[in-house]
Backbone:
């Protein structure tokens, strides 16, 4: 993974693999190591660079399970995907799951709790891995509130606090800033969420103030508004993206003329 912002390259794509049976995107759901490997290989062939594995859904449609069940879903999959030799992030808000996944071969912590507890910082520091730190307006994606203040000011205040925590553990240099747009409070009307995301994506330069890489959960639904949001993001060339359909992202990069593969297509 890149250790500093490099905006001349294509976005490094983490393809989503969900071991939770009730994740919102059904194409991403796998049951066991064989299905996970098949999806991983297909995603890598379609232009992904890395993999993001989760075992607990973050939307209203997903049942919240105990950490033991979450880990049971992931346990056979993590070593199988780690053997592919590409970066592998574990997407979890539970330090018990994070620890076990990193022990089993995951190489990146996608911290769905927003790194708001010392328990998660201790795990990250022990394994000295890159940390995707998403903005959250609550303790985890299932307990979020609507952002009432200015979105950009709220993001800046949140990351100032998280990076102060990171400094206590000597981990600022490992942090990757994620505006958290892949998460949403319950029952948020799409039109309001779209406007919020458009404000955030149009101001990603404000999140460069810490000189840390950016990570965006890229839109995946096929609507004009989702494609508009995708264009806004890709034109600003974040270092990392979380993606369900990497081939579509690579095609749009080429169309927009951004990234190292813009002229020749992604190998």
Residues:
């Amino acid at each position: 993974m890149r250790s500093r912002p490099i905006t001349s390259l294509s976005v490094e794509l983490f393809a989503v693999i969900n071991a939770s049976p009730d994740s919102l995107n059904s194409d991403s759901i796998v049951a066991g190591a064989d299905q996970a490997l098949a999806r991983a290989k297909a995603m890598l062939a379609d232009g992904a660079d890395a993999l993001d594995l989760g075992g607990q859904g973050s939307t209203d449609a997903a049942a919240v399970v105990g950490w033991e069940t979450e880990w049971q879903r992931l346990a056979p999959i993590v070593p199988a995907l780690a053997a592919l030799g590409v970066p592998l992030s574990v997407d979890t808000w539970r330090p018990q799951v994070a620890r076990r996944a990193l022990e089993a071969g995951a190489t990146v912590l996608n911290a769905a709790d927003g790194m708001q507890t010392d328990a998660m910082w201790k795990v990250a520091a022990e394994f000295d891995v890159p940390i995707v730190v998403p903005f959250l307006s609550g303790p985890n994606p299932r307990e979020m509130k609507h952002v009432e203040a200015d979105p950009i000011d709220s993001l800046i205040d949140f990351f100032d606090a998280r990076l102060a925590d990171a400094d206590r553990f000597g981990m600022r240099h490992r942090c990757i800033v994620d505006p958290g747009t892949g998460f949403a409070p319950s029952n948020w009307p799409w039109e309001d969420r779209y406007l919020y995301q458009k404000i955030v994506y149009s101001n990603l330069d404000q999140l460069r103030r810490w000189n840390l890489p950016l990570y965006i959960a890229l839109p995946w639904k096929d609507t004009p508004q989702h494609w508009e949001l995708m264009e806004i993001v890709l034109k600003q060339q974040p270092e990392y993206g979380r993606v369900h359909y990497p081939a579509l992202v690579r095609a749009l990069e080429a169309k927009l003329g951004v990234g190292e593969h813009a002229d020749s297509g992604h190998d």
In short: Residues 3-8, 261-267 have pLDDT under 50 and may be disordered. The chain has one domain: 12-256. Residues 12-256 form a domain with the TIM Barrel fold (CATH 3.20.20.20).
